[in-house]
Amino acid sequence: MKRLIPVSLMLLSTTPAFAEQRKSEPPDREVWVTLGTDAVAPMRESFKSAGWDEPATVLAKEHASVFRLRESQLSRLATLMHERFNRCAGFITYDTREEALASLEPAPAVAPQSLVTYTLDNATTVNTLMGTVLESNVRSTITSLSSYTTRYYTSQSGVDAANWLLSKWKSYVPATRTDVTVELFRHASWAQPSVIFTIRGTTLPNEVVVVGGHLDSINQSGSTAPGADDDASGVASFTEVIRAAMARNYRPQRTVKFMAYAAEEVGLRGSKEIATYHKNNGINVVGVLQLDMTNYKGSSTIDVGVVTDYTHAAQNTFLRNLITTYVKIPQTNTSCGYGCSDHAAWHNLGYAASIPFEATVSAGNPYIHTSSDTLARSSGTATHALKFTKIAAAYVAELAKGTAQ
Ligand code: BES
Ligand code: ZN
């Protein structure tokens, strides 16, 4: 299936001057959009039949082009992409021409990172954490998150879901853990915040391991967006790692940050801002694990698809070794064909990112982005998602190392 061709993601400026400038703009502002070459002709046809002017091409490259559009034209483009390419969005919007143009340039050189060695020598901690996680807890988090009418990034219920998760994560932290913070990461351009749980590293606090998934959901036909698999499942999977880490007094050597990103479904916007924040502040993120869609068992013979594009080859090998050694479940390689989730936001800024997926990409949950993305359509249990809890536990214990009791 043809999908959006590689486009890298760049920062959204959040300087005060920029924010001022945006406030005074008319509501139908100009935006810059990168679109895969295969979608250009369908877009032109669609705009023509709506009686709109030919969209202005700013730059055309082999795989993708940049267009200047009006914000009000985006929903027609989104519908087209969904109908013709069976994809949500499938294009990426930018606030400035410069950002859109820069996104078509190759990813910058890898950020100055310490050399992490992908060794497997912390089995005791891995097994303590893996032995603590429970399916019933993962299921309960999926049930709670998917009970919001929508977690759309501009909706009040999307904000409520973020605050609910903040409270849940805070409830896991014993009063003695002064090395732990749980906070919102607010975004200037929309209501839903991201949520971040940080455990400061004991001996290497300036090296950061990130585990994330997206908090928002979407349904293009405007009815309920339970997003039970996409992506309550991913958030629930690593929420259970947080619970186990606190229950077992886990003390990592490196800093560990668990992140529930806002606004993924509308172009990785939350993770782009967060990854950019880390880049701009010179924060040494040594590895990123994304969990997006973990609870639909799409293949009878394969439990995990390791996504090979927009990810880091050496870290992917490490991930495959963790799965073989500790979780002992069948896996295969797979690919999205485009930057399909928040790992791509990190990857495009030069960070090492990986994403273990619930199946091969083509065998993933067919109900996402509809009112049918419910727990019931993923067997009514979190048995599959729990496997990803274990993968994330192993990833954290071997990349951030440290001990547990
Ligand atoms: N969870 C999906 C990505 C996905 C879908 C991966 C199916 C594998 C199989 C994610 O939330 C999503 O919908 N991403 C968008 C792209 C993003 C840049 C807006 C998509 O795939 O259209
Ligand atoms: Zn989605």
Describe this structure in words.
The chain is an alpha/beta fold. It has two domains: 30-103, 2-Layer Sandwich (Alpha-Beta Plaits), CATH 3.30.70; 107-399, Aminopeptidase, CATH 3.40.630.10. 35% of the residues lie in helices and 18% in strands. It contains twelve helices and 13 strands. The chain has helices at residues 16-23, 40-49, 74-85, 97-103, 123-130, 135-146, 156-171, 228-247, 269-280, 313-327, 343-347, 383-399, and strands at 30-36, 56-60, 64-70, 91-94, 180-185, 194-199, 204-214, 254-261, 284-290, 304-307, 331-334, 353-354, 356-357. Strands 5-6-8-7-9-12 form a six-stranded mixed sheet, sandwiched between helices. It has a four-stranded antiparallel sheet with strand order 2-3-1-4, sandwiched between helices. Strands 11-10-13 form a three-stranded mixed sheet, covered by helices on one side. Helix 2 packs across helix 3, helix 5 runs antiparallel to helix 12 (383-399) and helix 10 packs across helix 12. Residues 87-90, 230-231, 264-265, 267-268, 292-293, 336, 339-341, 361, 364, 368 line the site of ligand BES. The site of ligand BES has 19 residues, from helix 8.
